[in-house]
Amino acid sequence: MLYNNTQQQAEHKLILLYIMDEFGIPLTNTQITQFVMEKDYMNYFSLQQFLGELVSAGMLEYSAGEQNYFYLLTEKGKNTLQYFKDRLSAEALSSIQKAVALKKQMFLKEMQITADYMKKRENEYIVDLKVVENDITLIDLKLNVASNKHAKQICEKWKNEAPTLYGEIIHLLIQQ
């Protein structure tokens, strides 16, 4: 029975790593809890325990944002998931993928993503990129670029990929 319980705990941790990988964006404890509880993947107390254990093991990072704390999947977490992902059933993986896709759309709707640019001087454009969630600025990035073409490209990419880019920026900044 102990083996089965240990195996189940490991599976739940893999599920959490897979969820974080599928979202590909930093998530608050509230967002993770809401998602896991809605889908009945595990109970609240186990979820909190496993999140803590994954942070302690260096597979998740728990970092401060402007007014919230966020969980991020670390490189160690990604490597562990890739190594052990085959222990999760194809049915479970597919179910999580579909659920994450729907929930991610809801999270993205809660986020306001803006990208704009203006000409400052000849061959100098200021690009202003933002992600705001529930009236909290998650990131406000200003870039100086040399051409109108680059400014447009940056704005377009930001509009299409802001949550992923934001997650990568945060990961790069906190990576040790």
Automatic annotation (TrEMBL):
Signal peptide: none
Top-level taxon of origin: Bacteria
Cited Gene3D superfamilies: Winged helix-like DNA-binding domain superfamily/Winged helix DNA-binding domain
Any single Pfam family the record assigns to this protein: DUF4364
Protein name, per record: DUF4364 domain-containing protein
